[in-house]
Amino acid sequence: MTEVFDYDKDKVYLVAVSGGPDSMALLDMLYKQKYKIMVAHVNYKKRVESDEEQQMVQHYCETKKIPFYSTDFDSKKVDLKQSFQVQAREFRYHFFSEIYQEKQCDGLFVAHQKDDLIETYLLKKQRNVINESYLILNETIIKKMKVYRPLLNDYKNELLDYCLKNQVPYRIDKSNFSFIYPRNVIRNQLLNEDKEKIFNQAINDEKKLKEKQIDEIMLGRRNKMAHGENDSLDKKYGIEVADISISMMTEFKTLLQNMIATESFKQPNVSYNA
Distance between CA atoms of 38 and 17, rounded to whole angstroms? Predict the structure, then answer.
């Protein structure tokens, strides 16, 4: 399977690469499709293999003449009262942001894939922490960076197959098999589950969530109008509409539903060729 991305090739992109099969597959695809890219790698120094992974990614970039930037995570600064994963994510995106701004990048590619999306959905359900979405969005803004996730249609085993068939080097992070982290527990449980069925359930739950958010917006608008307020709608969900009359409510709700159908669930900028 060959993925063909549809992003602007005149722009410059930063690619987050850990050295695992997901990010190495993404890097190889972007390189072969002649995107203007540079690579950022974080060495967490938590495993003896960490330095080998950095050297592997750096060697790949050097042979392809791709600019490579790396940094080490200082484990001495870890706050034991806070989740390591939360701290690592903050450190990682802060580093990406520094390079992104300094090199005037136009976008950041990260290699989240379909398994990640399903795991995130189940984690949020388990913790009852929904925020504004159950899912990982294919495009978002983090620390003023435009973040793209073009692999959300691919399962990890498909990306692993890509690496094997295209002789792309990669390393497996052994910490992914540790049950210390809740995500790893869910990942292990999913081995015997129908992932596509769970994915469809996630999509249905996301649609219900968006419908609920629409109803909240509409109710808020009616309350404002009942009090003679004609200002714009609450921006909680990124929607701003000025002075909508009662007669336009049904039409407006249909418009929001169409926006959800075309935006919230749109697939990444990628096509597939067998």
Answer: 10
What are the percentages of helix, strand and coil residues in the chain, rounded to 5?
A: 50, 15, 35
**Ramachandran assignment for 260, one of left (phi > 0), alpha (psi -120 to 50 degrees), beta (any other):** alpha
Q: Which residues of 186-199 are buried (b: 16+ CB within 10 A; e: fewer)?
A: bbeeeeeeeeeebb
Token pair belonging to 235: 């921006």
Judged by DSSP in three states, 136 sits in coil
Q: DSSP letter at 248? A: G
Give the whole-angstrom CA distance, residue 24 versus residue 32: 12
CA dihedral 119, 120, 126, 130 (to 10 degrees): -160
Residues sharing a CB contact under 8 Å with residue 106, sequence separation 6 or more, in sequence order: 8, 11, 12, 13, 146
Amino acid identity, position 109:
F
pLDDT tens track for 23-73: 999 999 999 999 999 999 999 888 888 999 999 999 999 999 999 999 998
